[in-house]
Amino acid sequence: MCCGDDCRPLAFLLGLPFALLSLLVSIVGIIVWIVGLLLTLICPCFLCVTLLVEFALELIKAPLHVMEWFTSQIPC
């Protein structure tokens, strides 16, 4: 068996339900991002909408962050 830093197949399988939940969160992030982007195109003076779009981008990246965190928690 390999016991390198990247060898965590069990962690991947255990983290899959959490990744699916974060995928749903990222879908919400995509919707918020589209609405925020449209609002910034209509009136670019909305600073809070820009912050909302940045937050939505972090929601979109959530599945990757969850899988990286979960696989790093379980040893090989």
What is this structure, in a nutshell?
By secondary structure, the protein is mostly helical. The chain has helices at residues 9-42, 47-60, 62-73.
Low-confidence runs of at least 5 consecutive residues: none
Summarize the helix and strand pattern as letters: HHH
| Fraction of residues in β-strands | under 5%
Assign the structural class, choosing from mainly alpha, mainly beta, alpha/beta, alpha+beta, or little secondary structure: mainly alpha
Our count of helices gives: 3
Largest sheet: none
Radius of gyration: 17 Å
Residue share in helices? over 70%
Report the end-to-end length measured between terminal Cα atoms.
9 Å
Mean of pLDDT: 74
Extended strand count: 0
Taken from the alpha-carbon principal axes, the silhouette is elongated
Transmembrane segments: 12-32, 38-57
Keywords: Membrane, Transmembrane, Transmembrane helix
InterPro entries: TAXIMIN_1/2 (IPR055283)
Protein name: Transmembrane protein
